[in-house]
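Lab manual, section 2.4: Encoding a predicted structure.

Procedure: take the sequence of the chain (387 residues), apply the prediction step described in section 2.3, and record the output as structure tokens. A sample record is shown.
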Amino acid sequence: MRVALVTDGIWPYVLGGMQKHSYYLCKYLAQNKVEVDLYHFNSSNYNINDLEYFSNDEKKFIRSVIVDFPASKKYPGAYMVNSYRHSKLIFEALKDKLSLYDFIYTKGFTGWYLINQKHSGKLSCCPIGVKFHGYEMFQKPPGFKIYLQHLLLLRGPVKLISRQADVVFSYGGKITDIIKSIGVKPERIFELPSGVEESTLAQHINPTGKVLKFLFMGRYERRKGIEELNQAILQLNSLGKNTTCEFHFIGPLPQDKRINLPNVFYHGEIRDRAQMQTLVKSCDVLLCPSWSEGLPNVILEAMGMGLAVMATDVGAVNVLVNSTTGWLLANHSASGIEQALETVLNQTPQQLDAKKQNALFLIRNNFTWENLIQQLIKKLHSDFKIN
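Recorded output:
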């Protein structure tokens, strides 16, 4: 089987949840001896030609094709214009190889031009799938300016590409509902969650101690709900209810998004995997108060290391978080987050440990890349008759 994986970067050459998903997708397809032509680009200081984050055995099945993302001056709509230009550059790079592929898996806008060409009858080729991850542009935005960007710039192209693709990949949960609502027929939707590597899973949970440790992981984006979380922490502090808990933040957060309290700790960006895992495992509850999400890697990774999760019910979060693994928030308000924090603080250590254990079991049994890639390969074989 030969697949073209067309993506807007892979981790760690480009940072982000979508890029990490692309990395693991490529890695585990190669491990299963699927030939992968990887169309991507670099925005880091690493030498992308070395692909040093893949093993030598994996690299035997990966052909790297670099298609740089166009650069231009910043102006309203520039990202969309450059995304379309990028999709045309990608088309030029792969058009003469179309007959070689059994399936083409595109991420975001990278397949825009190719999908449109096939849909309009200007070329024929194997099935083309598209994945937009969270479809955040159809979820509730944290402000009017972002709402206008979603409405005027993003929704139209995303709806068009999703309707024209042969297959639309979904994480499940509310994301599938969104995909259906924009006109994609259910039979063209394939639900496949993301996951973690078996080797990264904790062997057991760390029992909850006298001081409950909350954790936030990620870079700053307005939709991540850091402002509301900060307000909730300050409210908790004003009520004198923060004496038995700590808040730990991992990620490159701006100084003006930090609060100065003795039980709040900022660790910055951590790239060393062992150091990251040690810190995460020392915590008890991951906080993910986002306005919009897909299926956050931070939730998967934290649950896989034995943490319970408190998160807003957006995207496909409810595929992972429920009353047995944590706390699912109905809204993004600071008062709602503060009340949920109080609920967590009122839990006994035994109750917290049960949720942590359930979270670890859920990931181990259902969300490892070793199992997920088999589901994808089976889908390609059964639905598209690929040998």
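Check your result against the sample. Residues 144-164 form the longest helix (21 residues).
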